[in-house]
Specification:
Pfam families (chains A, B): LacI, Peripla_BP_3
Oligomer: homodimer
Keywords (chains A, B): DNA-binding, Transcription, Transcription regulation
Largest interface: A-B, 69 and 67 residues
Protein name (chains A, B): Transcriptional regulator, LacI family
Order of helices and strands of chain A: HHHHEHEHEHEEHEHEHEHEEHEE
Helix content of chain A: 40-55%
Shape of chain A: elongated
CATH class of the largest domain in chain A: Alpha Beta
Number of domains of chain A: 3
Largest sheet of chain A: 6 strands, parallel
Organism (chains A, B): Thermosipho africanus (strain TCF52B)
Number of helices of chain A: 12
InterPro entries (chains A, B): HTH_LacI, LacI/GalR-like_sensor, Lambda_DNA-bd_dom_sf, Peripla_BP_I
Chain lengths: ~325, ~325
């Protein structure tokens, strides 16, 4: 927008730019007469004081940023709702940015949010590192990591117990007779995909089962494209999240197979639609709304008590058994 | 975050605040010596120049805001993707805010975004008016309305032909023998709900069919709660969007009825999951990604050509026939 500049305000008020700045920032005494002139000009021109002026006065902008990796994944929408409901009650406004699982974009968004003066940041990263974020945290940016932590960065976080979630799922599949597995996992660089990979391999090796593992990315398309290329179906296809599972099921069915008759398929997250999917999806439920709420609560605590807390909150996952998996004959 | 203040920069550099401001804003000549001192202090403290300083130099912040009504509705996620893909190519960053279908919250978000210095705004409103937005548009804020326009506000917009969408849907249902209807519509105050209501009543009256119409809101819960209370099923339940239809189908099935055997149910939007819903949903497809892309394109045109264009783009809807509706005996 064509925002009136501070220069125009100064001209209109017949004062210097420094005077306008002093009035807006309360940074130095100004005579009542000059103050009135400036305020009249500000009002007439519809000039908005910059947020830094407000920050200087109040020390706070009451704005929280949230960088998330994929706006089209309903998993994050539920997290946002949880965070927002908490923040609103506390008088904070949440502004969201979508990195679209792109590391460069993530840096750009981080720079934009910081330049807009946020009091703190909720962050679900797309890769295994972010040097700019590391630097900003060292310089005092208050951050709570959500769903995914970045190893090597010291910060507070709220995640779900991915190890336990994966164990619940695999124990269930193994117990119901599945002996061969393909794991179509999400992005290699993400914390959650790594943990789930480790648990998977450990379980497979321990039970001496046949298995393959692939990193793709956390999307419907990744699942669809990958499953199109599978030649020989295993007993179970384990997917890195529900969206991958949706894509896998579609591709498998287009090839003329049926789920779960020909192959069991599982997800991870339990997004709203998984209950209604055809077939309804067996998956691990993450407490998404609670995750958002807890992260917002922790961030506000850090901001308002002005402490550099390093606290990790780990929430419990839950196994949800539906119709995309079946009991195999032993 | 504990951002270093301009005062601290001034102290560190051993100069006045006005001098720091002059250097950062390029608003008045400063000696090379002082400039160097200020720049060194800025660097050492990690001070970020406020966006208004950047605006003053460049006239633009290269940031676009988007206020949307419901982050949990995947309909908007697709629109965001379309807008973002276009904006990114043009070097703009998109920041999102979720009004959660709350008018007060919408005003708060608008104030926040304007105070953060956006170059323009994409706006999907939650009500039938927004006085603050009207004022801001008069004062030069560049806005493109998306999906929903607000009557009485002169601005550019990108919408889908709601009238045609509703006609396609009702003509199909009437032709396939449905003679009694309940329309569970979205929020009374929204443009799209109003248009769809008008078309519905007109069609029903013209064909002399039995009908009832109710405004609720565009959510799963609204559909679920409303359908729980329906005593006598009509031939068809027409829903204001796909989420309402999901809720309706769940409630109907919990009451022991089957869709479409006992009642046909239709949606509006065709979000990703509707193809996979059980039963797959008959609905009207809106070109969501294209809507976002076109709106971003129009907004950037308005910003870069600095014109106050009032242009409306109306996109075509498409009838998608799936398994939640059936052919009735005539």
């Amino acid at each position: 927008m064509n925002r009136p500049s501070i220069k125009e305000v100064a001209k209109k008020a017949g004062v210097s730019i420094s005077t306008v700045s002093r009035v807006l920032n309360n940074s130095a005494p100004v005579s009542e007469e000059l103050r009135k002139k400036v305020e009249a000009a500000v009002k007439e021109l519809g000039y908005y004081p910059s947020n830094i002026a407000k920050s200087l006065r109040k020390g706070k902008t009451k704005t929280i940023g949230f960088i998330l990796p994929d706006i089209t994944n309903p998993f994050f929408a539920d997290i946002v709702r949880g965070a927002e409901d908490f923040l609103r009650k506390k008088g904070y406004t949440l502004i969201l940015c979508n990195s679209d699982q792109n590391g460069e974009q993530e840096i750009q968004l981080l720079e934009t949010l910081i330049s807009k003066h946020i009091d703190g940041l909720l962050f679900t990263g797309t890769g295994s590192f972010n040097l700019l974020l590391e630097e900003k945290i060292r310089k005092g940016l208050k951050v709570v990591f959500l769903d995914r932590i970045i190893q090597g960065i010291n910060s507070s976080y709220v995640i779900v117990d991915n190890k336990k979630g994966m164990e619940l799922l695999l124990d269930f599949l193994i117990k119901s007779g599945h002996k061969s597995f393909i794991f179509i996992n999400g992005n290699k660089e993400t914390f959650s995909a790594k943990i789930r990979y480790e648990v998977f391999v450990e379980k497979m090796e321990k039970a001496k089962l046949e298995y393959k593992h692939y990193f793709t990315n956390f999307s419907y398309e990744a699942g669809y494209n990958f499953a199109k290329k599978i030649r020989k179906l295993p007993h179970a296809i384990v997917c890195g999240n529900d969206l991958i599972a949706y894509g896998v099921i579609d591709a498998i069915e287009e090839k003329g197979y049926r789920v779960p008759d020909d192959v069991s398929v599982t997800g991870f997250d339990d997004i709203l639609f998984s209950k209604h999917f055809k077939p309804p999806l067996t998956t691990i439920r993450q407490p998404k709304y609670k995750m958002g709420m807890k992260a917002a609560e922790l961030l506000i605590k850090i901001i308002e008590e002005n402490k550099f807390l390093n606290r990790g909150i780990i929430l419990e996952p839950e196994l949800i058994i539906r119709k995309s998996t079946k009991e195999l004959k032993k």
